[in-house]
Structures are given as structure tokens and as C-alpha cells.
## 1
Amino acid sequence: MSGICGVLTSEVVRDEERAALAAMLDALSHRGKNPPRQGHLGDKAIMGYCGSEAEDDGGKRPFVSPCGRYLVVLDGRLYNGPQLREEIEKSGHVFRSKQDEEILSYLFLSQGPQCLPRLNGMFAFAMWDLRDQKLYLVRDRFGQKPLYYASSGKGILFSSEVMSLLKHPALERRPNYNALFHYLTFMMPPAPLTAFEGIHKLEPASWLEWQPGRAAFFLRYWNVDGSRKFEGSDEDAIDELDALMDRMARRHVTPGTGLFLSGGLDSSLFAGKAARQTGDMLSLSLDYVDADHGVNSQAAQAAEICGTRHVSGELDVSVTEELPDIVAHMGEPFADPTLLTSWRLARMASQHVGAAVTTSGTDNIFGGYARYLAPFLYDTPDLPPEVRKVHTELTKTVPHAYGGKSLLGEMDPCASYYYSQFALFFGNRKESLCCMDLRGAADPQLTIMLMLRAFARCPRATWLDKIQFFELDHFLAGRLLPRIDMVAGAHTLDVRMPMLDNEVVDFALTLPVGMRVRRMPDRRPGSTGKGYETKWLVKMVGLRHLPHDLVFRRRHNNTVPLESWLRGPLRTLVLDALMSTQCTIRDWVNQSEIRRLVAQHMDGTANNTIELWALLMLELWARHCLRR
């Protein structure tokens, strides 16, 4: 785990910029165990770094290239660093360190940013080219590592965390109403927006180039290639994925690494491979003390099957006492309740190991979510009334032209149903919730347009492909990965995601639909209960190593028990935060709608858990992040 930040100016770096960088770097200190360090190259660029790596790689951070041309700071690592190093050495280059930063500086020296598609890893890095007076900011393909940036008026600023960036005196804490409007749908401000006016997220698989006196521009260095298709048999695909997961265990699991084990298919399958690789694997799970059913018993059973040493913990409502810290570390409003679970699990893991592995992302790339059934269930003129109602409502919100393109044709009933499954507030409900000032400052069609434009980029792709391609940029990079990075950084824990290795994703993206979601023969219900088997290929690999019951176990709705918490121990917090005269968001959200949602939930006439949680997290963000 590490963090990076920097200040670049069109003029000369002065003492006030150095002081600002020191404050920005201090705000990142939780991301590393070693003392923070600064570095500069020339008179226009200063950068900061904090990390936890052992000081045995023969280099220093921030890194200055041997040729004296590049200043580099890197958060993360290159998975294919050893292969790139070997290839470069064959060309005659002699490395002076074991740092990935030296590999990056050599690649930029020889190829410039055209080298970026070759990189496999989880990373965000900044590189200042002294000769050409250019700054490059780069993020990995899937957004595993965050990177924020803003204009300082005299130049550009960047940091791993938005609250670090706000330590610079040139930036004001002003809400971005457009981002907040779309937060209410996505449960997180969608990139490149952030909750703060003037601050942006660099999008995944992208790089920014900036020169003094010129406007920054952006390019995407990787896109999904939907043309490549796996042409082997079912058995060939099973063999390939089985071997691929073995390679991932060798690449990503080292002695002393822990593993997050839920007892489900993905984590159990990888746990068995990792345990065989290391011989001594620690697995960790977390349960909710007042949930209807538990994770720990399933995880303990899986640990015994897979041969790991297991540690389990419990989560209760006391975790909400830490909400001010959680919200401040997140830096932006974030409505996914699994953030609480991840926070406590990361803390528990950090007490036992310095690094942990998670199989997060497997469902996204191999077709594991129930919402991926939309193309199979609703691609028909005979629609259920609830789906037809959603489709009619959403179609009215789609403009006939957007950005010069007609996207109405992308609004198929299955697209409408899918949108309704991942969106929180949308359509008439969102119209009723948001005050005129918030609606007036927003581009109200942006959220649905993000989906439709992603669909339009792949006009010949199947509906399942379109949905999964969209989620790579907006669900995976927007909700799942920021949560993991935040809790890992807050607890100085290195979290690795082997199922998002380029090799795995490249393979998954070639699979035909039937190897991801397969229709069951003889009208059998499958583990979804709807006649289809999601994540079919992973399950077939699982049958080689795990009991049948574990592989096909129905998903439990094992979520944080917020419904009862909001009616019980958190009732006072909800009322004080959302219904008092001190409510910060009362100018953004209609108080009558809040009162209706609260009353319905408290008297049990409706379950408004996620809606109230999203509003509560928005209010807490406004209190703890928007105010100085």
C-alpha cells in the first residue's frame, strides 16, 4: 500500500508550494508505514510518496531516472514487471534498482505513452518529463488504484486521495451539484466527476498529459476488444481457467499473505489453490451478529476443505460509531453499505498480515450477478408489467440526440430492467427527491447516457457483453474498487486482486455468452432459480476442487442488517441528521420526500433502507468533508 501526490507549476516552485505538498503528503501518511518523502526535478515539479515497502530494492522514492530526465511516483505494482525487466535487459540496459519505477522510465524513454497497453498491474503513477516539460498521469486498466487531480491556477495538482488534494490552499471545498445529483443514482459520483467542484478523477485505462501554459488532454490507452472469441470446447475452457487460476495464485500469493474467505465459490476456489501454493495460508471472514444467517460457519467449512488457517470476526452496530472516520477517509459520499464490512475486515486483517488477497471482480467479468439475467429474461415482447412500466418511464428520459448521436435505439427493455437493478434513485422518484437547485445544476440525463453510450460503442456485441463492458468502467471502477482501496489505505494493508489481472480479464472477455451464463437443460431452475446458471465456467472449475453443494450454493442476501439498525439503534442518528434544522442537505433534497421515506421505514410500511442510507451518507459527507 502506498500513496502519491504532486504539485506542478508553470512558473517556479516556491516555498508555499512546498508547504502545500508537505500538507498533502501528511494527509496520505496512513497509506504507508515508512516516513513520507519528497522529491523534485527541475524547478517546476515536486512530488511526494509514502509506502510500506522494504528498503531493499536499491532505489529511492520519488524516483529519478538514471538519465535524469524523469521524476516518477508510483502507487501499486506491475504484475508483469519481471517479464518487462528481462526483455529490457536483453536490449542491453543495465538496471540500477529493482523498482518498477525504473521499468516505467525506460519504457517512456524508448516508447513514450505508447508503452501503456503493455502494462499489467494495479497502479496509478505520475511521471514528469524534464526535457519535454510534460506531466503524465496514468491509471491501470480497471481503476484498482485511484488518482485525483485539479488545477491550482498556476499549474496542476494530483493525489491518491481527494482529501489530501484539498490540503492545497488553492482549492475550495465547494460541492459539485452535478456529481451529487448522479450520486443518488450510482451511489458514488461517476468519474470523471467528484463531489467537489474543480476536482476530477482520472478514468481507468486513461492517461492525462499536461504542459505548462497548455490545457491538459486525455487519451484512453485500452478498450475492450469484443472481436476476439474463444473457439475451444467447454473442456478446453475449463482447463484454461483452471490453469490460469493456478498461475494467479503463484503470481499474487506470497508467504504471509492472507485471504478474504466468504465461504462462497470464488474465494473458496482460490483459497484452495493459494493454500497449495504457500503451504500455510491464513483466511479471514466477518459475520454480522444480528443477521438472519451467517458467513463464518460457511467460511470455516470452506477453510477446512481448502486447508487454510482461519480467523473469524463479528460486525455489530458499533461500527457505525466510526462513520465520521469512514466518511472522511472515503472523501466522497458513498452509499454501498458493504463499506462497513470492508472497513472492519481490513482492520482485522491488518492485525494479522501486511497483505491480503480478495477475489473481488470475479462476478463482474465471468457473469455472476443476477442482474446479468436481464438479456435472457426480458428480451421478448411479452414483458412483465413491472418491467414494461420501468421501460416506458426510462424511455421518456432519453433524448433523441445526445452528443450528436441518436441513442434511443439502445434503450431496449432489457437495458431498462438492468438499469433499474443497479440504479438507486431514477425517473419520477429522483425528480421528486431533488430540489430545483440541484436539478438545475445537473445534467439530468448523464447517468443513463453513460450506460447508453457504453452500449453504443459495441453495437454488434450481445446484451450481456454490453452490460459487462459498461460495468468495468462504472460499477467495478466506480463502486467496488474505490471501497477496497480506501479501507486498505486506511489500515495500511496491501490488498491484491488476482482475478483482475490482465491475463484473467483478457481470457474472460473472449468467452461466448454460454460459458458465462448458461441456459439449463430440461427446464431445470439452476442455482438462480430462473432456468439459468450464472458464472457457469467458474462453477465448472469449482467442481474439480470443491464439493457440489458449495459450488452451487444459492447466494444468501448476506448484507449489513441496516434495515433493523435504522429502525432501532440508528433511529436517533437518522432523525437528527436528516430531519433537523441542522441538516446540511436540506437545500439539495426535498424535506417532504425525506420525511415520507423516514416515516415509511420507521413504521414498517416500506423498506427504504438503501435510500435512507444514501441520504445519511450524503449528509455525513457534507458535515465531515465539505466543511473545513
## 2
Amino acid sequence: MHWFTKSICLGALAFAPPIHFGLTVAHGQVADPSVDPLESGVLHLPLDRVDSRRVLGRGSSIIGVKDGGLALDGRSILKVPQSSEISHAPTGFTIVMWVNPFALGRGQQMLLAKNCYSLDQREWSLMLDADGRFRAYIRQGNWKTIEAADLNVQPGRWYQLALVKEATRMKLYVNGEYQDELPLSRPIPKTEAAVTIGGVDDQGRIWQTFWGAMDEVQIYPEAKSAKAIAAGYQPVNQVLKIPSIGPEYRLWGGKESVPKTQELKRVEGTTFHVIKKYEPSVDGYRFLHGVAIAVHRNQLFASFGHNRGAENTGSEEARYAVSTDLGKTWSEPRTIDAGNEDLAVSHGVFHHHEGRLWAYLGAFHGFRQDVHTRAYVYDDEANRWEPRGVVCEEGFWPMQQPLKMGNGRWIMSGLQVGGRNPAAVAISEGDDPLKWRVVVIPESAPGNVWGESTVIVEGSQVLNIARYGARPIALAARSSDGGEHWTKSVASNMPMVTSKPYAGTLSTGQKFLIATTTADSGGRRSPLTIALSEPGEQAFSRVLEIRPALFDEGVGESHKNAALAYPYAVEHKGRLYVAYSNNGGGVGRAGEPRSRANNNSAELAVIPLSELQ
């Protein structure tokens, strides 16, 4: 396919100084604009003029609702520069756009937005939501939504959306018909966030991307009437052919399809314990994430990233707790490394080597800059951790304990922080716990990857399963030479939450994958599930529920919106110990959104292996 960009035609704005706008695709240069005013004061993006001299991103020309249209590949966005005041007109505004989704079930697909989350710049957005419905999200202290009716949205078909802001309310229309409205309890924030189309640019992290076509985007500096919206809609019956995204990797091999949430069977005999409560009023810590566990000298160790401030900031610490009764009760948290003014140390993985317990921890400077991995070894006599320095650079952050391969080397799975954040592994030099090489797994899946990954090892054969940030489905890649060379990481046929997974092989010969894996959960981080293969088989064929979000019969936090995430597992004496984070549905978490991210408790599920066979 020939990829190219299109020059965008924008009119001067009546509610800001007249500016000629160009359009940036992803992070390319700005194309020369031409003026094509629909009427005075209207920002008009017809998306139908091709400038093949400038390849600024991956978009293709298609037949649109009026002349040509633009198809986005699910990894690129269009960003309107100098657009921070576009929707700040005192007279309100109206957004009208045509969209044609190529797929549902990809999580939240942003159509048009004015947000930069990491800078706490949140105003509004139009999206195709994870459940296949069109919604508008409006910032009113927190997010409030305007939901369209269940229209049975079909890939390949055109839909016209309109969002209207009046003085005291906002209204949503689809195909000229009124859907619902939201009374405004306060003014919408006015921020410096740029208007983006087809996704969000979150300080270089491109995500919530849209895979589909768009045409005729218009922003009016006034609130249009329902009559005007209806008059501006004419049905488009043409159905677009959905482009291929390449072959899927077969992770799911069950006779039946992956079950829905309500169809899951609960794992019997599981017991639950709390490793560390969320209690900032007691200890001052808010952020907690990335729980890792290991059995060492008949004690259970748990480590995690801990922060009195916000996630991924300089006050992050690596901490741990110890259980002498295999998870029933836990010590108060202790510190592995608190870093310093220029260094933050966070969560990571454990490793047993020659009778000693090691920890490999992700670390960074500033706001998640210069990410690397540091090693520590536990002094059993002094009951403290000894630092052994940096062992991996190149942005590597470990996510799974090292596993021994057939060649005697160890492989430690994780991701490379930077760019599209691809899945990566670290391979030891021989049996040396201090010498590692980073191997980045090539990727071809469109959109944001954020490839937190896990591996299953069989001799020299290694399967990598990774989070896919752009879509709630597992990515997969394979190496046949001990992780040195890899197939491209591609979308699989198995749904999986857009969060870190954990996989392995049980002593029964069954392969397992812990995440949220159901046919209908999308990007929701619940229920916590375990997918299983039959002994010796390659593909997963069953999914069981470890615990749901609302879980009053168990210990730990229970809420219908609880996020159960970032699992880590270890087998010991006939049981599988599964540690995970739980945000309690956000209950009791105060402060700005940035500081509330991953304000978790750390919890533990103990599963009898007999219940997994």
C-alpha cells in the first residue's frame, strides 16, 4: 500500500487571532496549509487533499463522504498545532465529523480530543468507547460522559458525530439525531492542550488510537441548533473494505471461543491475603504497584514500587515485606533502595541464583527518564539488600523473573521504555547474574505498544506475550534460538487487558497466563483470570476466574470498579501464589488525577494446583 499524507485546509478562527494552521501527523513536520474556509470563523478539515511530497505519518487516501477521506492505521494521529484556544469561544462551539471504524474491541479509540493527561490538561473528547458505543467525555472536576444509544456500530460504515456546547450544557448527536446531554456544573477547563484527531499525544506517548477512516471535520465557534445538525446530515451508504493488519498469532486453541465474564468458572479452594494495605494516613505512601514475590528459605518475599508522591516521579522507592507463614501475615514494609534526589528506584523482579535471592529493579531519573535496571542481593545474616549496580540500560524495565533456557543462559522479560515502548528481554552472559544484554523484540502491530511482557520457555524455544496498549488483545512473538532473534510481535487471537500479563509453565505441564482475559472485558482490569493449556499443549484452551472486582466474601478491597492488575506468580509445594495490585475502585483516593494513579493495595491469591487441572 502507498502511504502518504494530505494537506489540511483550515479557515481562520473568529475566536482567536487569525492563524493559518498546518497539520502534523504523529511527530512529523508541519505541512504547508491551504485555505479552504467553509464559512467565516469555522475550522474546516476536509481531509481530501493529498500532498504526496510529504510523508508525515501512516495514512492512506480513501473515498470519503465528500470527495476523498483519510484512513488512519491505528498508530498515527493528526495534531493541529497552535490549537489550544480552538474550543474556548464564549459563545460555545460545535464539532461535526464523519468517522468509519475498521474494528471494535480495541479499547477506547479517540476520534477527537483536547487532552494531555500527563500534564493534567483535560478538557473534552469524542471517542468510540471500548464497548462499541460513541461517547463524549467532558471534564467537570472528574470525567462526565454523554452516551449515544446502542447503535450496533458496524466496521466499514460511516457515522456523523456532532458535539455541541451551549452555555450550560453539552449535547451529543449521531447521524443527525439527538442522543443525550450533560448539564455543566462548572466551566470546562481551559488548557494548553492541542486538538488531536485519531488519538492522544500524551507528551510523546501516542495512545487511545483510532483504526479507521475520517472525513469532513468541522469546528464552529457557536452552538448549532438541533435543527441545523439534522439538516447537515445526509446518509452515506457506501461500505469501506477493511484493510488487513496481517496474520494473527494463535494463542487461543479452545474448542469454544474465549468465555465472557459471566460465563467464567471460579477457581475453587483459593485463599486470599493482604500483603500491604493502602493506608496513606498511616504511612504517607500513595502509589504502590508492580508486586513481585519469591519463596526464599521457606519465607515469602514481596517487593513493590512505593511512592509518597505520584507514580514515576523522583520520590519512588523500592520496598519489600516478608511473610514467615507463606502469605497469611506480613511484616511492615522495609526499604530496598530509596534512591536519591536524582535517582528513583521502583518495582521489578526476584531471581534465585546459587542459593541467594536477587532483585532486579526498574530505575529512572526525573520523570521516567533514562530507564535502566539495577541489581541487589539479599544478605540473609544482616537481613538487608546489598546494591550491585546497573546491569541493564537501553530503557529496559524487567517484568518477569529470569528463566533458565536450554543453553544455560537466563532470560528476563520486560519492555524497553522509549519510542513505542516495545517488548524486550535481557539475556545473561552465561550464568553470570551481573551481566545482561538487552534484545528488543521487533513489532508490527499498529498503535501504542507499551509492551510489558512475559515469556514461556521450552529449551531454546521462547514465546513472548506482551501487553498491547492500543488494543485489548495479547501480542505474541517467538524465538527459536534462546531469545537472540525474534519474529515480529503481532496481535494474537486472544483477548487480554491492556495491562501487564504473567505467564509460565506449571509442574503439571500446563502453560498459564494470568491477566484479565475474557471476551467482553476489553480494557477493564477485572476480573483477574488465569488461562490454561492442557499438559504439553501450546495453546490455551480454558479460562478460570481467580477473583472478581466486587468480592465481599474475600479479604482485601472490594468494589465493582476495582482494578486487579500487574500479576506475578510463583509455584511452591502444590500451590500457585499470585500477587497483584488492587486500586479499590478509587475509593478513598484523594487528590488530582495524576497523584491518584495506581494508588493500590498489594494482595495475594493462593491457588491449589489441583484446582487448575
## 3
Amino acid sequence: MKIVEVIPFAKGTGEPMTYFTAQEISSGMVVSIPLRKSEVLGLVVGTRDARDEKGTVRASSYALKKIKKILGPSIFTQEFIEGAKEIARFFVSSPGEVINQIVPKTIFEKYKELSVAKAEGKKEAEFKLEKFAFQRELDERLTFYKTLIRTEFARGNSIFIVLPTIEAVLFFAEELSRGIERYVYSMHGELSKKELVVRYNKVILESHSVLILSTPYFIFIHRPDIRTLVVEQESSGAYYTQSRPYLDLRIIAEILGTTRRQKIIFADTILRVETLARHEERELLEFYPLKWRIESNSTTLIVNQRADTQEFHLIGKETKKEIEKALLSQGRVFVYTVRRGLRPITLCNDCGTTLTCANCSSPLVLHSTEGGTRTFVCHKCKMRRSADSKCEHCGGWRLVALGYGSESVYGELKNFFPETAISIIDKDNAKTPQEAKKKVKDFESKKGGILVGTELALQYLTKPLNTIVVGSIDSLFNIPSFRINEKIFHMINTLRQKSERLFLIQTRLKDTRMLESALSGNILSFYREEIKERKGLRYPPESRIIKLTLEGKKAVIEKEGSAIEQSLSPYAPEKFSAFISKIKNLYRIHIILRLPRAAWSLPSLLHNGSIDEELSKKLRAISPSVAVRVDPQDLL
């Protein structure tokens, strides 16, 4: 009988767990094991003869469980397993949790049908690990990739391009596969289980060099001939996972690429501030000089909403005229809005209190229903409340709805252009990707027409548009996030590049320096201002931030938060209420640590990086109910 150490591929697991089996087994095999009340897969990382462990087994406080099945050799390479261990160290997690998070469930469900990866060939002694920053517009990057693919294929090498969304994978596949269709494999979550298995096996067994285009959740796929790993659209927020363990998939790609000794390219039209800082510090090389200005063939027009004081409209007079011009020439118009719903904020005119959700501290958003009535909706917990509500603070009836969302803009455009086809894309009006794609397809197939949309619509708009209107972005400047300027800069230039004739923005903040840089496409000016501000406030990349989030009853989390503060006192913790301090009747507080980058890093990320082991022990000792985020997307 064998005593077996197994890393379970499941959430809520820490160190390898111990099982037994009478069958022949060795490290590297994948097994099916009982865990809690379910059965999961796991990786064997060690075996011992039970005869040598009799005393230990007898003294154990729990009974060993038997391995259910041995599925065979691992499809995961040793480099991937070692990388998962490093990823777990960095993100204060476990290898099993990491693998469970970044590998699609279908891979575990269909494990027996998958081919085992080829054994690693002999490493090239002269291979030099290099990392590059590649900041060019999309057309230039596509041209570069076509040349790179031809060159690498001629050398017998494969290429892996990671993209943040399914839409991006499909677009790049269409652009890069011409002439090499047989050797291009797109891997993403919309594939059926059967098709996913077929494509995976072809990727693994194909003798010719291949181009793999995939979302980050297929980064575990490896062939010995992959010499180049590209992280495309690296500024996308879609690289963050939305559930535990909280991971930045760009960092995972870099760790795995380094472990596999691949050349790594970080590419985008506008790279993140952190990535540009790494380039400035010479951590990242460049293929070509970085492009610091984004060109646009369209005219940029700023409509000053402060100037139109006679009668306010969501769509100003000048904006309305420009939309009319576009429609007369049968051009398509996209109107971007920041918020969904009718009105994002409602105030009491008597006491000035903001109307908020009874379960959350989130502001209630005014929506219209299919029947034409109006209702308040909480976008956090989905609670609904009659629009005839009174102020809960003073009992007053004089409630005033402020700001405007996509539904308000849609309604005003319907009044202005009753004969024009107008559609809307946001989370309320396009609840599935298929619904959003259909709306965009209908919009792009017609001459003329108006599409109103939030950020959700941008990933589906692939064709140039005659006119793009930004209804207003002023409310974004009120969000207390250290990344908000970067988000606005990216959004404006993404929209500018999609416009053919006119890019128009309505604002009351036309003299803001960041807006000036964004509207002229001046990346260098924006970067210099932003990096200066972040250094002064010790925001990334000046520091590595670790954020702890406590959620529960107010008295309980205050007590627990104080204990954590005391435990982490050598690291100068900062405790504060979350931006939305209550969700579903649970209060939320954050504790953040600002560390030097080298004090919480890995050699695969920074040449002198290391993990503070004392801090790591303290963080791992904290209750599992506390969410830990390393390099969080925001501090809200």
C-alpha cells in the first residue's frame, strides 16, 4: 500500500493532502479523490511506502481516505506545476486553488479524453530570456504578428497569443489565420465540450508549428516548441479574476512564460502605467521604439456643456446637429454613456441625502420598466423599490433624480429622431453576449442608425463608425480610484480610433489636463503626469499593494480588523471603509499594505524580487473569510 500526497484541484485547499492506494502510482499522475462531500481531481506530488509510515498513520488524528481512481499521467507539464506553486506564493493561495481557477472545468470533466503533452526537449543552452514592451496601434501590431508568425514557423517554433476576451480571440483569429488556417487554434469558453477536446488534442499532437490564440484560461496548454508568448491588449481589466483566489492573469502568464523560458511580449495600443514604468526602468526591452501618440483620421470636437445654459438637454444643440449630419449621409452613430438606467443618483431636496439601498449603501438607480412605469434598482443586490418612495432620512417627498444613464439618452434620441432606427446595449438591454452581438450585427448591417451603449458595447464594435458621441464622462472623475485617469484615457482613445468622420465629447471639464492629453492622443504627456502623481501618493508602480477585505456584521469585522492591524503593524497597515460600505446588509472594510515592489515579488517578475516570508505567514494565518488581493484592480 502507498501513502500518497495529492494537490487537490479545488477551492479552499492549502497544503497537499494525504490519501492511500493499493495500486501502482507515481508522482505526476492525476487521480480522483474524495474531498469534503464531493469528488475532485488532484495531482500526485509524492508517494511513500505505507510500511515505512505505520507509526505516523496510527498517530494521525484523522483516518486516511482512499484514492477513488487513477486517471493516468498528467496533462500538466512540470513547468506548469512549478509555475502554479510560484503563483500561489505570490497571490497568497495554494497551487490547487490556482489550478482550479485558471483551468476550465471542462478540462477536468473530460480529462480521460485528453492527450498528454509531449515531453520537454533539451533546453537550448544559448536561449536568452527576454521581455518586451510593444506599444503600437492595432494595425501595426497585426502586421508585426504576421511577419513574426512566418519567421517562427520557418524556424520550427510555435507562438501563443493570450487575449482577454472571447471577442478578441475571434477577431485575431480572423485577422491572423489567412493562409495558415490549418495551424491556427482558437481556445475559448464558448467552445462546446466536444470541440474543446478535439482542438486541445490537435494542438498537443500537431507535428507542425502552431499559432494558439486563447483567453487566459488556456495558458496551461504547452508545447515544447512554443518560444514566444504574447500578452495582447494587456491594459484590459478582463485579466482580473472575479472570484477567489483573486488573480491577475497577466502576472500568471509572465510567471509561466518565464518558467518555460519563453520570449514574452506585452502589447497594446496604450500599455498600462505599470508596464510603461517597467520599460522606463529597462525591465522590458522594445522591438521598435514605443509609439507615444495615437493618430486619428477623424475630427475631434469638444462641446462645452457649461456654455449651453438656456435649456439643458442630454444631447446638446451642437451635438444634435452633428448627429443629423451623419444620418443625412447615411452614416452610423454610436453614443457612449457611462451609466445604465435613467438616472444614477437621486437626492432629497429637503435634506440633501442620497437615496440608497436598504440592504447596501449603494446609490439606487432610477430605471424604466417595460410597462412604462419607473422603479429604483440597486445594481449590487438587485433590490427594487417603488419610484414613489420618500426620503428615509427626513420623510420628504421632494426627491430629485440627477445625472443620466443610457435609458435617458435613448429616450431623448427617440424624441429627436423618431424615424431613425435606434438600439441600446447595456447590461439591462443586452443580457447575454449573443444578444449584444445580434444588436451590433443589425446596427452595422444598415445604413444610418444610432446605437446607444455603455462600455459593454465596445468589445462588439469592430467596424469603423461615421460619428461617435461621448454623452458625458464627467461623473467618472468623481470615482476615488487611483486608476480612474488611466481608465478615462484608454476609453477616450478606444472610441477615437473607431470614428471615421467625427469624435465628439460633451463635457463641463474641457480644460482638464488629462482630457487635453487624451483628446490629442498624447500618451507620453499623460504618462508623465500620471506617474508623477502616483509616485507622490505611493500608488503602483511605486509600491506593491496588498488589499485585505473583511465583510460581515459591523462589530465583528471592526474587532477582527483591529486584530489584523495589530498583527501586521510592522508593515504600516491602513484601515478604512469600502467605497460602498455595505452590500446585502453586510458591512465591508479594507486594510491595505504598501510594500516596495522587490519586497513582494518573484525572480520571474523582478530580477531582485522575493516574497517576505514573515508577512506571508501572517497573511496565511488570517481567517479564510478575509479576501486577500495582491496588486488589486482598485482600492474601492
## 4
Amino acid sequence: MTRETAASPPVPTAHRHDARVQYGGAKPPTHRNLGLTPTWHVGALAAAAGAALVLGVWGMTQVDPLRIGGAGLIEALPPAYFVALALSLAGFVASLSLRRLVPALLTWQLLVTVVILAGADPIIHGLPRLEASFRHMGIADNIAQSGQLDPTLDAYFNWPGFFTLLGMFSGATGVKDIMGIATWAPVGINILMLAPLLALARRLTANPRHAWAAVWIFYLSSWIGQDYLSPQAYSFLLLLTLVACLLSVFGGWAWPTERTRFSRWLARSVSKLDGAVPRQGVMEPPRADAAALVVVCALILLAMTASHQLSPFAVIPILAALLLTGRLRLRFLPVVAVLLPVGWLLFAASTFLQGHFGQLFGSLGDIGANSLGALSTRVSGSDAHMFVVYTRMAEVALVWVLAAVGAFVGYRRKAPWLAAAAGAVAPLVLIPLQPYGGELLLRLYLFSLPFAVCLAVLPLMSDKTAGLGLRRALGLLLMGAVLATATVVSRYGNDGMESFNDDEIAVVNRLYSTAPTGAVLIEAVRNTPWRFQHYADYDYRALVAAEPIPNAPPLSCDAANQIAHKAGAYLIITESQQEAAELRGSTPAGDLQRFIATCATSPGWTKVYENAGGVIFHIEGVSNGN
């Protein structure tokens, strides 16, 4: 800077009427014509999300668990909760409609939605959801305490990856009681899924706005409740991370498209269906980095294989679909994905395979029994439970119809759609294998959902990167409101049997303090929050499963007496068992109360403990005086 420049007098600021002259006759720059979003808009939307969070949490704290009926939590939620849910939905759509995307604001909006939809159990009940959560804590504790794996104990010990990791975490952190972690697992797991979900959606959609909308719809329509402390949740998180990594780094054709007649035909067909299919990955890392990422992807496959029975098989058709649509250039990875679970089943899980061969392969190829047959067994129970079942079926149908419409719109618009459609349909090829305990269709819905939502929102997304128009925004808000309301019913429709209270935990603790090690412990209906400790120290039995039983016969004292005949047993009946029996139709209506009243006066039956959560009986056997 010269002395003359430094000493130059400041240029006078133009007056308002000179603004057009200063900018050559054009309008002076403003937030609107620069495409910027005023800061106060962002602040107002963030504050509205905060208000929705506070109101939603407060509303959940006002729930009286005694008011939760056969239709689940929706009967007991106060109006404040639904106001908070509506505010969070409107806030996200408004944030997505801004001229400029603000990722931090959208992330905040999604986190609020996650807490409102997935935080009901920890906030209302303060205990883990589902009796399986308690079992999983017990398995991790057993492995951590014994340092051994007993594959003959049950199926979990043949796929111990998740439980070993959980036990290592407990030992490394000194947190011996992981009840709190299990309680807040649904919120934590959904938050952990956010990054891979967004990365996956970004690779399957045309622009970031579309990806954010897809992730939002995923959270609003993910109702099956597999986000508790479980191998399924862990494996699903790994699956999302794997596919997002592959699409980001290893996209493209796995072979020269002009090499053979088949490769030419396939490439032309894919290009005709979806011209947006890329010819190479989104990123091209150095060769050493790419090799390291390949190893990481293989390790993710191995971790899934060691942790869960179904997820490793679900990833196989997904990888094959990406390979055939030009979105995966690692041709060997689907082969590795096949070899790992098959090899694990033959060698690492050979004990389970030998004892359950018929169960694993008895229904192989029976599509009807594995799909409609398994579904029909769930369409039963009380009238209130039937309302929940039909809501679930309607929500799944709605998501799939929206995805089909989105695929058609994507084809007409020449927007990316084929990879998402292939990923959504691919898991369905598992239907001929087996019913997976009647839950196969539920799990397949979960595996296909991250792909289906990318299609479902496509008709409401603009090809431009600018904000949504009013009609599109209202349409997206309506879609979100319908799905969120349905999810409150679908996700928490079984809340009476899937949630527990402190009185029930007190009954279980009294059982453990009373029964000697090695004793036979009987639950009337398989729905007890136990085995979170002493997993292998007792002989656990159940009189009836918490499954629908057409024309279910009443429970008899003789069934328990036969189990206890040799050395005696302890019988536990809890509030959640009674709820499960009523909702699922496992026993006739009111049968457990009759069972308790009748058997309490039977010879050899002694009431050990009772509170509002349940009752414990000791049944004498031959060796102890009967």
C-alpha cells in the first residue's frame, strides 16, 4: 500500500436511491436474491425443535403406565406429546425447505425426532424394552465372567461376536451393570445410524435435500423395534456402514462393459433404465488407502457373520444387486459374503447345525409357509392387538407403494432410482430359505427400508437443489405425519407386554435370592425380564410361548407339576406375562388369574413372594417331600 493510497479519503457510502446506480442498475444483493438464509430463520427453527424436544419429553414423563391398554402406548400419551411430534415434523420440513441447506440444523431436527419417537421406553418405564434385552445382558455377563463360550448352552453362543464385544466393553470401562445402556439403547443406536444412513442415501439420490428427506422418512417408518440392545441392531448398523462405504468408494462396473455380449447387454439395459448410474466411484482414494478400505469391508462382513444368523445372508443379495446395477466394482466381495456365513455355519456353529438341521432347512423352498403362513400366525389376538397388527401391515404396504411410485417417477424423470430399487427388492430373495421363527418378513422390511425410503420421497423432491415449493413441502409433511402416527401405534402397540416395571424386577431378584443354584425355574408364559444374571446357573423352563395359539387350552397345574416332579421347581408369574397372554392369545382370556387361584391351593404349592409385579411359587418334588 502506498502512502497516497493510505491517505486517501474514504469513499462516501451511496444513499438508498443511489443503490441501483452502484450495482449497474440491478437490485442490490440481499439474502433472497443471493440464495442465502437469514440467520434468524435458522435460529427460530432450531429453537422450535428445542421446544418440541422439551414438550415431548415432558409429555412422556406424564404418562401413567397403568393406562396403557391393548392398543399400546397411544392410549396413554397426552396431547402434549402429539403437539411436540407435530412441531418436530413441521420443523424438519421447514428446515429442508430453506433456500440453503443447513446440515447442523437438519441434524438437530433429526435428533429431536429420534428422541420423541424412540425415547418412550427409557423415559416412561426407565427399563430396557423386550425380555430379550435382559437375556442379552445375561449372555454378555456370562461370557465376561467365565471367559468361555459354551456352544451347547443355546444358539446365542454359536454367534457370540456382539456379546463378546459387549462383555469387553463392560470389563474395559468397569461398568458391570449395563442396565442403563440397555435402557437407552434404542435412542443411542438410532443416533449411531444417522451418519451411515445419510451417507447411503446421499449415494442413492440426486441431491443432498433428497438424502436428508429419505433419512427422515426412515426414522418415521422404522417401527419394528429391532433397535434395542441386540445382535440384530449391531449387525444392521454394520450393514449400513458397509454399503455406504462401498457406494462411496467402490462404485462402478466390476468388469469392462464391452468385454462380452452379456456385459454389453447388462450395461445397456442398466443405462436405459437409469442413466444416472455412475461409471466409477464417488471417490478415488490412493491404492494403499483403497486396499485398507477393502480389508475394513471384509472385517465388517466377518463381524456381522460372528454376531448374527440372518444379517450376513441378507447382505449377499444386496451386494449382488449393486454389482449387477453398476454400483459395485469389487466383484469378489459378494463371493466373500457367501463364504463367510456358510463357513461359519459349517465350522464355528457346527454344534448348532447338528442339533437344529431340520429347523434350519425343513421349510427350504416353501415360499408360502415362510411368507403368508408366518404372517397369518400373527394376525390373531385381542381386538386391540388386531388393530395394531393391521396398522403395521398398512404401514408396510404404504411404504412399498410409495417406493414403487418413486421408482416409476425416477424412471420418468431420469433421476437415480435403480440402485435403490434393487437394494429394496434384493432381501426378498431370502423368503424361500426359512421363516426365521416367524419374523422373516419383519426383518426383510428392516433390511429393505433404507433403500425404499430413497424412492418413497422421490416424487416430492425437485430436480433442482433449491428449497422445496409449498406443495411439495405440504405433501412431505403429510407423508411424515401419517407415517409417524402409524409408527407410534405399530412400534408401541405391544407396550403392555414388551415393557416392564420395577415391581417385576423385584420379583425376579427375589427369585434369584431364594432359589438355590441349579434349581428349575418356570415361567408361565415366556415373557419374563430375567436371565440378566445367572444365565447358566439355573434350568429355565416355560409352560407356554408368548405366541398366538388358536383355541388355546387353559393352563393346568399338572404341566408345572410334571416339570417339578423330580426335584421341585420355582414358578414365576409376572404382570407382563399376563399382558402377553392376553394380547397374543397364548391362553384363554383371564386364564392366568384362574391358574394362580387354582394352583395356589394345590398340594405341594407354596407362595414364596408376591407384589404388584408378580408372584413366586415353590413346587415340591419327589426328592424334597412330595
